[in-house]
Design goal:
229 residues, alpha/beta, Arc Repressor Mutant, subunit A, three-stranded antiparallel β-sheet, 8 helices
Length: 229
């Protein structure tokens, strides 16, 4: 797999090049935002690992620019720990966010989760929720009366797909973390809440009063389709 690592810290670039290269990945690097966009467009990677505090063009603007023409997975690795920075990055189109410093095993698990490909061949249902149609076969989410698909990041799609495939069933925090990120990291439930909040904004009629993506306090989440589904 080809990974583009974008960071202005030469030591960090060297460390990740060695670590991810040892896993059999092809590594390309970029030291500023302008170089990152050029590299991603000239030879699109399978995964972009991106720092936010980049010279030339800020990492947030890199995400927005790349999202204008590509849905490649973007993993933000940043020293910014404020929840607002995470929300802004996810809103801009990032798929995952790791805070520096981090355990290398955690980073490798996030990389595996973002690049995992589904091999499911079972029947793919179409589910509705308050005028929103989720087509699991074509990976398309649309709203009644609108031709354009609702844009979801790859991670948002994975969470939604897990919920939709298990209607009425409680999916615990550990269930979701294990399936999406490869580790039952139940101490990071706030991180999961960010994604659930994003999905509700995009899909629920009233995000503050969800009817379909239901919180089971302290345990996890449950999906309730339309009664007629």
């Amino acid at each position: 797999m080809r990974i583009l690592i974008a960071d202005d810290d030469p030591q960090f670039l060297r460390a990740l090049r060695v670590t991810l290269g040892a896993q059999g990945h092809q590594i390309a690097t970029a030291a500023d935002g302008k170089e990152t966009i050029a590299a991603a467009s000239a030879n699109p990677p399978d995964l972009l690992i991106l720092d936010l505090g980049m010279p030339q063009i800020d990492g947030m603007d890199v995400i927005r620019t790349v999202r204008g023409w590509s849905q490649l997975p973007i993993l933000v690795v940043s020293g910014r720990t404020d929840a607002a920075d995470k929300v802004d990055a996810l809103d801009a189109g990032a798929d995952d966010y790791v805070t520096k410093p981090f355990a290398i095993n955690e980073l490798l698990a996030r990389v595996r989760a973002l690049t995992r490909r589904s091999t499911t061949t079972v029947d793919q249902p179409v589910v509705t929720m308050s005028g929103v149609t989720v087509d699991l076969a074509s990976h398309i989410v649309t709203r009644d009366g609108q031709r354009n698909a609702i844009k979801l990041t790859p991670t948002e799609w994975k969470i939604l797909e897990l919920l939709v495939r298990n209607p009425h069933r409680l999916l615990t925090h550990a269930d979701l973390f294990t399936e999406i990120w490869g580790t039952p990291n139940i101490h990071e439930t706030g991180y999961l809440r960010l994604y659930i909040g994003q999905l509700r904004k995009k899909l629920e009629p009233t995000p503050s009063q969800p009817r379909h993506i239901i919180t089971e306090t302290g345990m996890g989440y449950r999906f309730e389709p339309d009664a007629s589904a």
